[in-house]
Structures are given as structure tokens and as C-alpha cells.
Amino acid sequence: MTYEGLRHFADSWGLLAMTLLFLFLIAWPFRGKARARNEEAANMIFKEDDHG
After folding, report:
1. What's the number of domains the chain is made of?
2. What's the Cα-to-Cα distance from 49 to each of 2, 21, 39, 45, 46, rounded to whole Å?
3. Which of 20, 28, 29, 48 sits a CA distance of 20 to 30 A from 41?
4. Cβ-contact 1, 13 below 8 angstroms
5. Domain assignment present for 26
6. What is the torsional sign of CA 43, 44, 46, 47?
7. Residue 51 has pLDDT above 80, yes or no
8. Residue 14 placed within a domain
9. Are 51 and 45 in contact (CB under 8 A)?
10. 51 within a domain of the structure (yes/no)
11. Is 8 contained in some domain?
């Protein structure tokens, strides 16, 4: 492949692949099974809190 061929691929299919990967990674934490794990991670800093 030449530079022009790689450039055309990156401009079309590469951009589409990166967009789909971006959307997948943004949606990953909001899936149903992750709720409990995210709750635990959010409250982890308060686990040993004796003040209330």
C-alpha cells in the first residue's frame, strides 16, 4: 500500500472504527451489570470512615 491508500483508509474506515470504539468505551460503565461494581468503587473511600 502506498501513502495515498493508507490515507484513504484512515480517512474513511479508520475514522469509523475509532468512532465505534469511542462510543463503546463511553457506554461500557453504564451497562447494567456494572452498576454494583461502580457503586462499590464510588463508596470505597468511605469504607473505613468512623465519623458517621
Report:
1. 1
2. 61, 38, 16, 8, 5
3. 20
4. no
5. yes
6. positive
7. no
8. yes
9. no
10. no
11. yes
Residue whose cell numbers read 465519623 = 51
C-alpha neighbours within 13 Å on the C-beta side of residue 34: 8
Range of the domain at 41: 3-46
Helix (H) or strand (E) holding 42: helix 35-43
Q: What is the dihedral of CA 22, 26, 31, 33, to 10 degrees?
A: 90
2-38 pLDDT, tens digit per residue, is 999 989 988 889 999 999 999 999 999 898 888 889 8
* pLDDT value at residue 47: 85
How far is residue 3's CA from residue 5's CA, in Å, rounded to a whole number?
A: 5
What's the grid cell of residue 35? Answer: 452498576
Please, are residues 34 and 28 in contact by the beta-carbon 8 Å criterion?
yes
Residue 52, pLDDT above cutoff 70: no
